[in-house]
């Protein structure tokens, strides 16, 4: 099987600039760009009124001034929240970004984006559909499309239903029973694993199937060096200040 073409940079900044700025905010993307990064990963989910925006957790408490599930609130309630002061005082007042703001930032700065579809529980397929449809319109005519990824096969099925032409990747924290067959049936172009489960043999297996092999979240130079020697295609990192 021929390896799928790969227009993406090797190094990808996790949640914008990982832990150095409030994750999944425009401030984090700006910081990653300042450190020379030209590819980013972020987590995208839906509000109750199906606005697409960036947030990692199923609930708002950890990284915003809000409370509860964003799936039970409209965007108008989330837009004013403070998504920065939990991190450190200089980021007080930083807002939750909408997906279209991040798309514009990436396109304006010639950066690639790995969009992790991160559904709240119960809306996996719908989140995949809405995020993929939105991505297709936000990147219309772009030379490098966003890479859509998810731990949830149902979300990737939804993405395929809404925008079949956009590349998809299956995220794996562990190599669960049936993952290879599931990946084949999802029509993916890449598998993104926890770095702890990636090794030369798995990279060879993925490449043999025509897929690219990526890992998250690599914050140690020695781990990165081993994986690069083994032929890894992408490394997602928090350490935009020292790696890449
Ligand atoms: O997309 C890779 C990585 O972000 C997956 O884990 O929990 O950081 O979203 P998490
Ligand atoms: Mg993520």
From TrEMBL:
NCBIfam families per record: PRK09454.1
UniProt cross-references to PROSITE patterns, sorted A to Z: GP_PDE
Broad EC category: hydrolase
Organism: Roseateles paludis
EC number: 3.1.4.46
Keywords: Hydrolase
Protein name: Glycerophosphodiester phosphodiesterase
Gene3D superfamilies on file: Phosphatidylinositol (PI) phosphodiesterase (3.20.20.190)
Highest taxon of source: Bacteria
Gene from which the chain derives: ugpQ
Keyword Plastid among UniProt keywords: no
GO function terms (MF aspect): glycerophosphodiester phosphodiesterase activity
Residue runs in coiled coils: none
GP-PDE domain residues: 9-244
InterPro entries from the UniProt entry: GP_PDE_dom (IPR030395), PLC-like_Pdiesterase_TIM-brl (IPR017946)
The keyword Ligase is assigned to this record: no
């Amino acid at each position: 099987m021929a390896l799928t073409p790969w227009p993406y940079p090797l190094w990808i900044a996790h949640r914008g600039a990982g832990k150095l700025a409030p994750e999944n905010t425009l401030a984090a993307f700006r910081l990653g760009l300042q450190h020379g990064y030209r590819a980013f990963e972020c987590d995208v989910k839906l509000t109750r009124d199906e606005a697409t925006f960036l947030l990692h957790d199923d609930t708002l408490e950890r990284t915003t001034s809000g409370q509860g599930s964003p799936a039970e609130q409209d965007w108008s309630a989330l837009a004013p929240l403070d998504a920065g002061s939990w991190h450190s005082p200089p980021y007080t007042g930083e807002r939750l970004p909408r997906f279209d703001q991040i798309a514009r930032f990436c396109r304006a700065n010639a950066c690639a984006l790995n969009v992790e579809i991160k559904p709240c529980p119960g809306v996996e397929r719908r989140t995949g559909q809405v995020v993929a449809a939105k991505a297709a319109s936000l990147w219309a005519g772009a030379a490098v499309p966003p890479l859509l990824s998810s731990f949830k096969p149902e979300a990737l099925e939804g993405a395929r239903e809404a925008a079949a032409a956009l590349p998809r990747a299956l995220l794996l924290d562990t190599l669960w029973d049936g993952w290879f067959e599931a990946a084949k049936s999802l029509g993916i172009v890449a598998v993104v694993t926890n770095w702890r489960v990636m090794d030369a043999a798995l990279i060879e297996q993925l490449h043999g199937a025509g897929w690219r092999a990526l890992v998250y979240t690599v914050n140690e130079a020695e781990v990165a060096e081993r994986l690069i020697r083994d032929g890894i295609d992408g490394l997602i990192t928090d350490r935009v200040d020292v790696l890449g």
